[in-house]
Amino acid sequence: MFKKKINEQKIAKTKEKNIKTTPYDNEYKVTPLKLLCIIVNKGQGDFYIKTLINTFNVSTAFLVNGNGTASVEIYELLGIGEAKKDIVFALVKEDIVEPIFKVCEDRFKISRNANGVVFTSKLNSIASVLMYRFLTDTKINIKKEK
């Protein structure tokens, strides 16, 4: 009962102030995010983590160990190599996806051991403005030109 009364008081105060809010993306530049996934042979993932952080200023990147379940014959047939993999997940701004793909493509050409797979998946929403700013390492809000 007491909590309900406090909540009602807060709602009443908010209505009294008549606060108008504008969606963040109406006033500030917002670049859509994508989930980047890079699958490479064991030991190759560190290169991508360092490149993402140092070259592209990505603030959220994870390295996960992967282990394939197919038989050796299938791996050889597909030219995949070994069963143990490094999987890199990162949240990246849409405008840096192509340069990241170029770096991956160049790295994949180095040797058969450096081969891998890279792809992105679209993110439809982020929980809050603060979460978006954290994930994109946004320190300064850039106003949209009107």
What is the C-level CATH assignment of the domain at 35-135? Alpha Beta
Radius of gyration: 22 Å
The major β-sheet equals: 4 strands, antiparallel
Overall pLDDT, averaged?
83
Strand content: 15-25%
Helicity range? 25-40%
CATH architecture of the domain at 35-135: 2-Layer Sandwich
Q: Which stretches are low in confidence, meaning pLDDT under 50 for 5 or more residues running?
A: none
CATH fold name of the domain at 35-135: Alpha-Beta Plaits
From N to C, what is the helix and strand string?
A: HHEHEHEHEH
Terminal Cα span? 48 Å
How many helices in DSSP terms? 6
Order of neighbouring strands in the sheet with most strands: 2-3-1-4
Oligomer: single chain
Strand tally is: 4
Protein name: Nitrogen regulatory protein P-II
Describe the structure.
This protein is of the alpha+beta class and 146 residues long. The protein has a domain at 35-135: Alpha-Beta Plaits (2-Layer Sandwich). It is built from 6 helices and 4 strands, in the order ααβαβαβαβα. The protein has helices at 2-17, 24-27, 45-54, 72-78, 97-108, 129-135; strands spanning 33-41, 60-67, 84-93, 116-122. It has a 4-stranded antiparallel beta sheet with strand order 2-3-1-4, with helices on one face.
